[in-house]
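We store sequence with structure; for instance:
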Amino acid sequence: MPRNSEPETYTCALCEREVRQVSKHHIVPKSEGGRDTVGLCAACHKTLHSFFTNETLANELNTLDALRQDPDVARYLAWVQKQRDSRIVVRSKRERR
């Protein structure tokens, strides 16, 4: 009988947490002509799209460094990096920029 092996983990490109799963996030949204992707955990991916419009992501926050330097993202990262890999409910901001 095979031994139970540890589940495969991935590192989120934004929050750098070890997670069970990542999804592809277009650094510049596909709708804005983007092609390059990075692997983000579900919480980070949902948060970015709830905080920002595709236009803002394409024109202002089109690198991981630019995202990390945004004050709203920096506050979110300080919080999420303390969380374990579990389902995180993401609340929408009242006004996306």
Observations:
- The radius of gyration is 15 Å.
